[in-house]
Specification:
Blueprint: H1 2-20, E1 54-57, E2 60-64, E3 80-84, E4 87-90, H2 96-110, H3 115-120, H4 135-140, H5 157-178, H6 200-204, E5 216-217, E6 229-230, E7 243-244, H7 248-256, E8 262-263, E9 266-267, E10 337-343, H8 348-351, E11 364-366, E12 385-387, H9 427-433, H10 436-439, E13 451-455, E14 471-475, E15 483-484, E16 488-490
Parallel strand pairs: 10-15
Antiparallel strand pairs: 1-4, 2-3, 4-16, 5-6, 7-16, 8-9, 10-13, 11-12, 13-14
């Protein structure tokens, strides 16, 4: 009997061990990563690596919207409780040196006369003023080394998005090269004869077979001779998600940084600015009275009196100046205002979801060659996308959701796919029923589907705009001398690092 008991416990321990074995499927009992069992791969994944320049912003709930009376009485940011997921955000604004590196890459790969390079150039003429002498800034601000750590300006929303796409590809290319999985292509294969500069999308589609240095082991039992290795797949957890612009909710949440004002889920002090208090000066004894950001104090006063400049900057200042907020982010007030992803609507806070709120979704699908059924790539090596038509889903019924429930009859859910006679309508009819381009007017501009939100106060703004809840808008193709941007990245997996 004693021997049977010992045998029973040995078998029981083996069962528990097999259940806890990370290399064995709990569904089938088959071993992972074994060619004999079909070669299904399961990676030993810990957590997402932090991309270059980024800071982790742990998500949560917050009261999004106005915290101060609006002297303009625009009433476009009424408070609403929402939740954002954990994400990453650039610690500082994108600098001139960062953007010039992007321009240099485009020039080297495509040439300075190419349309791609020309379209990426910031508008340095934004510094000009008909009744001021700002020509030196137009000539020097972007490229002079004295300004290399200053935030880039003169960049439109469209250009900022293009920069995010380029940055994503360069970071993932560097990861593969550092791991010895891809050869450095110093010439950056020109977009001729079917070759493209490296892009994550093209690599995942197998477009760089001749550049693969030493791929990962191919465990498929069906692998032919010479196919002992394979390209990295997204399932391997090596490549990072794309850099992108933050949503308005993400940006406002990160700027407020209430993590420093919370005890056991109780926010004990509501912030008016990215720092504590309802004033713009530092109350620390060491820096008492110092300005917390650079901004326009009053008419004609951009920096104070010589010898004791109140914020030390007449225009922009080097990124990383002043003090970080409780997430470790710099210049979330002052320096430059920043583009976010959202399409502007006056009542966006009431319209959008209370989880990951965002307006601007246009769902697309990849364009495929009708002869080969393979994805078509543009000159930068990215999939060409086209809008999805005639969608019939429970969670959405049309591809372009920018106008969804934004106030006009054509955007209401009851009218999404039904005309006045109760019959389904096509896309052209629906567009006619949703005249967004002519319905939103105020005393300053016309709001359209190309109108984007920008957040935060700048060197050119009074203190009111330093409040993270303030929101303004501009056409996505326009730029100014006081709007810049920073990049975000989605966090995959656990909301808390180390879990």
């Amino acid at each position: 009997m004693r021997a049977y008991r010992i045998l029973f416990f040995i078998v029981l321990a083996g069962i528990f061990a097999s259940c806890n074995n990370q290399d064995v499927s709990r569904t089938t009992g088959w071993e992972y990563n074994t060619p004999e069992n079909g070669g299904f791969t399961k990676v030993d994944y810990q957590e997402q690596k932090t991309g270059p320049g980024l800071v982790l912003v742990q998500g949560g709930t917050f009261l999004m919207g106005a915290t101060l009376p609006d002297p303009l009485q625009s009433y476009n940011n009424e408070p609403r409780r929402v939740t954002v997921q954990t994400f990453y955000l650039d610690q500082t604004e994108v600098r001139n040196i960062d953007y010039v590196e992007y321009l240099y890459w485009l020039s080297r790969v495509f040439g300075s006369d190419d349309q791609l390079y020309q379209e990426a150039l910031p508008d340095t003429m934004v510094w000009r003023d008909r009744l001021a002498y700002n020509e030196p800034l137009s000539d020097l601000y972007l490229r002079h080394p004295a300004f290399q750590n200053y935030p880039v300006v003169g960049v439109s929303w469209v250009q900022a998005n293009d920069y995010c796409v380029w940055r994503s590809d360069r970071v993932n290319e560097g990861i593969l090269v550092d791991k010895g999985l891809l050869e450095w292509n110093t010439e950056e294969a020109k977009p001729v004869q079917g070759k493209y500069p490296f892009s994550t999308e093209a690599y995942l589609s197998g477009a760089y077979a001749d550049m693969v240095n030493s791929g990962l082991p191919n465990l498929s039992p069906d692998a032919a001779e010479g196919e002992e290795t394979r390209n990295v797949r997204m399932e391997d957890g090596i490549l990072l998600p794309n850099y992108r612009l933050p949503t308005e909710a993400e940006w406002e949440y990160a700027a407020l940084a209430q993590i420093g004002n919370t005890v056991e889920e109780r926010v004990y002090q509501r912030k008016f600015y990215p720092w504590n208090g309802n004033y713009v000066r530092n109350d620390d004894k060491k820096y008492y009275g110092a300005m917390m950001a650079n901004f326009k104090r009053s008419r004609g006063d951009y920096a104070g009196v010589a010898g004791s400049l109140n914020d030390g900057a007449v225009i922009t200042e080097e990124v990383g100046s002043f003090w970080p907020n409780d997430f470790g982010l710099y210049n979330m007030a002052g320096n430059v205002a920043e583009w976010v992803r959202d399409v502007y609507r006056p009542m966006s806070h009431q319209d959008v979801s209370d989880l990951q709120p965002f307006r601007g979704n246009v769902f697309t699908k990849t364009v495929k060659d009708p002869n080969t059924n393979q994805p078509e790539l543009d000159r930068m090596g990215h999939y060409e996308e086209e809008s999805i038509e005639n969608v019939q889903r429970q969670n959405y019924q049309q591809a372009d959701n920018i106008n969804y429930q934004d106030g006009d009859a054509g955007s209401l859910s009851a009218f999404d796919f039904i005309d006045q006679d109760g019959m389904p309508q096509d896309a052209e009819q629906e567009q006619q029923m949703s005249p967004t381009n002519v319905m939103y007017k105020d005393d300053r501009s016309l709001i359209s589907d190309q109108t984007r939100v920008y957040k935060g106060g700048s060197w050119k703004d009074p203190a009111f705009y330093l409040n993270p809840s303030t929101r303004r808008y501009l056409n996505e193709t326009m730029s100014t001398d006081y709007i810049g941007f920073r990049c975000a990245m989605t966090r995959v997996g656990s909301a808390s690092p180390g879990k």
